[in-house]
Amino acid sequence: MRLAIVADDLTGAVDSAAAYRAFNPEANCLVIPWSIEPVQRWDQVLANHAPDLLCISTDSRNIHATTAANRVSLATGWALINGFRLMKKVDSLMRGNLTSELDAFMSEATTAGCSFLFAPALPNQGRVTAGGHQYHGSQLITESEAATDPLAPALDSELKSFISGERPIHQLDLEQVRDPSLAEHLQRLSTRGAVIIADATAEDDMVRLRRAALNLPQVALIGSSGILTDIPATPQVAAPLIFANLLIITASRRGEVRGQLTYFAEHVKNSRSIWIDPDNLPAASTISESIQTAFTEGNSCLVAIEPSAILDPDIQQRRLQAAEIVNLLANCLQAVCASQKMPLLAVVLGGDLAQAFCAVAAIEALSVHESSLKGGAVSKVLGLEDFQDVSILMRSGAFGDADALSYLTLK
Questions:
Q1: C-alpha to C-alpha distances, 257 to 20, 123, 234, 253, 349, nearest whole angstrom
Q2: N vs C: which end of the chain shows fewer Cβ within 10 Å?
């Protein structure tokens, strides 16, 4: 089975590839960033690399809903033509253009006879589904920090509200998900075009759902990377990742990220923090030189927005400022990666920065590998000689405890 995953941002695509790779260690898992000529890029990667899993980022979480839908429709149609099984990756906090993207995905897939298992829980991060509603811990997502996301707030917690049109919608509660007859329940409900919303509060629930769904060829998956959770038959021991320099870089302003950055700066010895003032941005070359100086002095380096910086109250101005910062840091990161003579681990937090970096560096695709790092899987750039000594860890800014970044120093 070859699986194609259509994700609305790059870190989500990488998270999905890492989850799949964890129990399919021999699989060739590739991630393709969005590009100006996407179909040509997808055709080229498919011809040159023969992936088992192909994750396509449409970079559509924070753009106009119609444009987002068009990108998803294009990617889904291409995947169907090329014989892939389908999955639509969604944010487990239900942010972004969900309704328009799901409508585009399901419209394309329904023409191929698909039904849909909608299971967006991500239990290992406290994001669960109960009674057809999405929760973060004990709070509905609309009552959690996700509702105040500066660029893409969570607006609804009821999953069926994201399904447009006259589709049949069914609900699997926890009792049914944990019933030995789950596969039979799913098969009975999986008529063409139907959507089955599944409750899940534990990783075992996600394992059961995934296994039942993938035994039914007509079922397309809709969910977070949690739906790819499984238990390896034989636990794999990954080779240690060797790197001389560590760079953590982000434009995220999420509370979780601020906590992780502060913890890293205060607790990790031999580290240097470069804080960016959004109202007085330095040149990319200035930041790059400071990073190289930190490396020369034997320090890890952290580059982020000043924690005390105040957000613009106008969301449009906020988005313009965010785009300027992302572009600055993307150019800085590209310059640092291209000039490395020692093995570098670059940790990129946030999908917008990850996408901008790939665009600036003209990255065709990323190959996702396992690693012994507690921070997650790493990617290698395909096709760029300057990046041979660079390993990249791309991760959503919303994941992890306060000490999540400091784990990366434990080689």
A1: 25, 19, 34, 7, 8
A2: N
Question: What are 194's two structure tokens?
Answer: 């139907």
Phi and psi of 234, rounded to 5°?
Answer: -125, 110
User: Hey, what domains does the chain have and what are their CATH numbers?
Assistant: 3-228 (3.40.50.10840), 245-409 (3.40.980.20)
pLDDT score recorded for residue 375: 55
Type of residue numbered 110: T
**107 contacts 137 by C-beta, under 8 angstroms:** no
Q: Which contacts (CB < 8 Å, 24+ apart) does range 61-68 have?
A: 61/8, 61/9, 61/91, 61/95, 61/96, 61/97, 61/152, 61/351, 62/96, 62/151, 62/152, 62/319, 62/352, 63/97, 65/97, 65/99, 65/100, 66/100, 68/8, 68/96, 68/97, 68/100, 68/101, 68/104
State pTM to two decimals: 0.91
Hey, what are 312's tokens?
A: 């613009």
- Residue range 389-399: mean pLDDT, rounded: 82
